[in-house]
Amino acid sequence: MPKIRSICIVDDSAGVRKLGVTLLENAGYEVHTAVNGYAALTVIREMAPDACFIDREMPELDGLRLIELLRGWGDWGEKPIAMLSSASSVFDKQTGLLSGADLYLTKPFTRDTVLDAITALDTLLE
């Protein structure tokens, strides 16, 4: 039985948020969104999602710093987080994982990529 039922998508791109919401809602997930890292802190506190997909590059509070903050914040030290980015070098991926992300997905992403990522994140909760 999947443990992840609600997901927060944090991305400054309206198109990415819309695509993510469509893909995830059609797959039966409850989806919340935030336009940047600061907004994500409020959404995450109020909605308490089971997992997050966080964009690496955002204005004001980027995904790397947001993940570092979340990892020190309550039960988010253990909750699953995937980083989304168009940056795809080995260095970029390692930096994302070292910031505390459990997975690193490159954009553009497909439905199958996202659903496979959720399955992988779900195993972290076992």
TrEMBL record:
Keywords of this protein's UniProt record, alphabetized? Answer: Phosphoprotein, Two-component regulatory system
Q: Which SUPFAM superfamilies match?
A: CheY-like
Q: Does this entry carry the keyword Aminoacyl-tRNA synthetase?
A: no
Q: Does the keyword Phosphoprotein apply?
A: yes
Lineage: superkingdom: Bacteria
Q: Which CDD domains match?
A: REC_hyHK_CKI1_RcsC-like
Per UniProt, residues of the Response regulatory domain are 6-122
InterPro entries membership: Bact_response_regulator, CheY-like_superfamily, Sig_transdc_resp-reg_receiver
Locate the 4-aspartylphosphate modifications and list their residues: 55
Under PANTHER family, the record lists: PROTEIN PILG, STRESS RESPONSE REGULATOR PROTEIN 1
Record protein name field: Response regulator
